[in-house]
Amino acid sequence: MSLLARPHLSGWLEHEQGHTVAVCEATGKPAASIHWETPWNTSATITQASNNVKQLPTVTSRLYLPHNASYSNLSCVATSSAFKHTVTRFSSFTYRVAWVVPVTTGSTAEVYQCVYGPDPADANYTWYKNDSRSLPEGTQAEGNRLYFMHSSSDLDGLYGCIAISEKGTASAFYQRKTHDCLLQKIIKTGESTLINPNV
User: Fold this and answer.
1) How far is CA 79 from CA 34, 36, 59, 132, in A?
2) Are 116 and 95 a contacting pair, CB within 8 Å?
3) Which listed residue, of 34, 53, 62, 77, carries a Cα 20 to 30 Å from 13's Cα?
4) Could you tell me which CATH number the domain at 99-185 has?
5) Domains in the chain: boundaries
6) CA separation for the pair 38, 81 (Å, rounded)
């Protein structure tokens, strides 16, 4: 006779095509059922079943949060037919990874934000350009935001963000690639001619 195992719950947040996705994973025997408790009308969920490395049934549920919805009051609940009076609840959702997203502001600068956790103040952020481990002139870092002060392709390249908090350390990268407008190309050509008259 196979042994029973109470459901063990874990959860985290992911970022998928502009949406925040809460992921809940229940491992136990027999396979648990997962449902969500949310402050809004429950969004669409995707549920998958598999076996982990110990051959215990694992059920994974993905909940797509509405735009601008907070996950502070979000809970994932697991129940099992073998443990009718036991309810396992998980609500400490955090991001497993960091990522970089563009930000629209009132300034003329091009702005990107390193996202890691619900509150930017909970982490320390370090920005750098990959080929120099520092930031070039024309960029400015303020906390979890990176500002490009002009749109020239001179600032193109791979930029990295390191976020460090009590929950751990995560890294994210952004590949900046722009195309100079005709006026910028003319200005650069003129600068090159002044530097080297033979060009």
Assistant:
1) 7, 11, 11, 52
2) yes
3) 53
4) 2.60.40.10
5) 5-90, 99-185
6) 23
Of the candidates 56, 61, 54, 76, which has an alpha carbon nearest to the alpha carbon of residue 6?
A: 56
CB neighbours of 132 closer than 8 A, spacing ≥ 6? none
Of 116, 130, 129, 128, nearest to 163 by C-alpha is 116
User: Do the beta carbons of residue 27 and residue 58 sit within 8 Å?
Assistant: yes
Long-range contacts of 193-197 (CB under 8 A, 24+ apart): none
Instruction: Assign 191 to helix, strand or coil.
Output: helix
- Judge whether residue 128 has pLDDT over 70: yes
Instruction: State the average pLDDT for the chain.
Output: 81
Return d(Cα 6, Cα 79) in angstroms, integer: 9
The residue with greater pLDDT, 161 or 166, is: 161
Q: What is the pLDDT of residue 1?
A: 40
Q: What does DSSP assign to residue 53?
A: T
CATH class of 5-90: mainly beta
Domain 5-90 matches domain 99-185 at the CATH topology level = yes
